[in-house]
Amino acid sequence: MPTLAELISGFDHDFLVPTGWTQGRTAYGGLTAALSVHAARLTAGDPLPPLKSAQFLLSAPVVDRASITARRLREGLSATSVAIETVSGGQVAAHASLIFATPRTSTIEHDLVETPPVPGPDESPVFTEPSAMRPAFVDNFDIRKAGGTSPMSNDGPPLFRAWVRHRGAEGVDRATALIALADALPPATTAAFTEWAPVSTMSWSLHICTDDLPKPTDWMLLESSSTFTRDGYSHQAMSLWDSARRPIIQGSQTVALFA
Questions:
Q1: CB within 8 A of 212, min separation 6: which ones?
Q2: CA distance 37 to 40
Q3: What is the pLDDT of residue 96?
Q4: Residues of the chain with pLDDT under 70
Q5: At 35, which helix (H) or strand (E)?
Q6: Where are the beta strands (DSSP E) in 183-246?
Q7: Which domains does the chain have, with CATH numbers?
Q8: What are the Acyl-CoA thioesterase-like N-terminal HotDog domain coordinates in residue numbering (predicted)?
Q9: 3-class DSSP state of 121
Q10: At a CB cut-off of 8 Å and minimum separation 6, what does 176 contact?
Q11: Which of 89, 104, 105, 238 has its Cα between 20 and 30 A from that of 255?
Q12: Is the entire prediction scored with pTM above 0.85?
């Protein structure tokens, strides 16, 4: 099974989905998103500034073989926007809109992101034990439960907290590695399940809070909370902190569920 570092170093715009990076029959969404970020950085022109914002639409499965194309939409004084399409099975399977931006002088600053009190990763148990239902991609990460509930527990608010860390991401661009890591937990609405049913992330929006990003091999605290679920769709809020409890990513997802 190739590591993230190996996938990035051997990247080709036309590629086979590695079986060790799948969830069900499709590629892990975090990998599709991370490869989109990497493809954006390979576009012609001046080096891109730091990644600031990303929107991913995951419209169809990325199965077997896929191709990625990226183009710069606009390069302004401080921000560059890039569009990326992933095609698989003859259809657009994913679309990404990325904004790369340099810091600008501003008199306005606030941080209202509350960090939950949690034990450290060394004091936290594994998030889920290996099982036939666990997606293959999970083996690329260390995941330790730091609070909240568990999938199919149906015993409290649908909220997951976990320490997450890459296995094999040495040397990967920090933003790319973060995107690959930030989707590692199952949708939080699965905490309310009493038996397993299919789920699928439809859209993912995120904001990068700082340009001072942690190393790809560091522990990160990831929280996912389902705030509203009805009619077969769930909204979840997501936050990612580094080991010093600094907010790194704020995000949200819309998830389809078949339960």
A1: none
A2: 5
A3: 99
A4: 132
A5: helix 29-41
A6: 199-208, 220-230, 233-242
A7: 4-102+120-257 (2.40.160.210)
A8: 18-100
A9: helix
A10: 8, 34, 37, 38, 41
A11: 89
A12: yes
